[in-house]
Amino acid sequence: MKLTAVDQLRPQVGQVAACALVGQSRATAHRRAKPVAEGPKPRRTRESPASKLTDAEAARVLDVLTSPRFAEASVAQTWATLLDEGTYLCSQSTMHRLLRAAGAGGDRRRQATHPPRARPELTATGPGQVWSWDITKLKGPDRGVYYDLYVLIDIYSRYVVGWTIAAREDAAIASAMIEQATATHGAPNAVHADRGTSMTSKPVAALLADLGITKSHSRPKVSNDNPYSEAHFKTLKYAPDFPPRFGSLADAKAHCETFFGYYNHEHRHSGIGLHTPASVHHGTAEKIREQRAATLDAAYAAHPDRFARPPTPPTLPKVAWINQPAVPATDEDTPAAHST
């Protein structure tokens, strides 16, 4: 009704006054007077500029850019060299556009290629088989002062088999830590680490070779290849009593002695069925799990209504991996051959 009244008053007083008298929005009246066409607007065709290169000229430019002389030169170098020789073919932007259209854009120089690093795959079915180690920085009393904490951990039991702290990172310190750990706990089958300077150093490599231990390294920039050491450092630094800074090297050493004693013998680790690393490492975890099962059975017998099902203690993992190896296909996995 209002729009009809606006249409009737518009020839006499104009649209603005008509909308004001009727109380109608001017935008609504305008949309009705000039409705928007349905569907997308027709795309206007752009005429080719008169200065556009001909097909022959474009082919010549592309031949020059891909010639042996300029195949490895940048567009800017090619354009400037030709200009110094008194030749102007086209602008640099046109050269780039022609190369993109020909699928030859981007860096045109030979690029160094590196063979892919092998994915480390280690398996431990019990303690003493695979160790992992790393170094982390602890903040000292002043800005720029750090202490290096070396930690060697058994990936199956999560038991810290060796650690040391020093004012610097040194391959000799790392080698001495590994040697002492093997003298105490025996030599493992493999020792894994990332690609830090100490981890790939000759003293460490020579020690592992002398002990008959296989050395393993993470791929460059792949932190997931060393998950046990990374997770252990997070547990250390996220502990409630971990200080923002240590007053001295002796202060840091005292804190680590307390922490590693707690971690090995008191900390119930979620990754090993909520047992302590020492219990798994020294083989008492199964007995403790039986005691837990007996306690839960007694609780269920006393109050079965409080449980949805008979409770069981967490299971102890049977294997630990650094990058779980791919399981090879067996005869059962492959379809049987049909004889004709």
UniProtKB/TrEMBL annotation:
Lineage: Bacteria, Bacillati, Actinomycetota, Actinomycetes, Kineosporiales
Pfam families found in the cross-reference section: rve (PF00665)
Matching PROSITE patterns: INTEGRASE (PS50994)
Gene3D superfamilies: Ribonuclease H-like superfamily/Ribonuclease H (3.30.420.10)
Native source species: Pseudokineococcus basanitobsidens
Region (Disordered): 25-53, 102-125
Family matches, as InterPro entries: Integrase_cat-core, RNaseH-like_sf, RNaseH_sf, Transpos_IS3, Transposase_IS3/IS150/IS904
Domain Integrase catalytic: 123-285
Annotated protein name in UniProt: IS3 family transposase
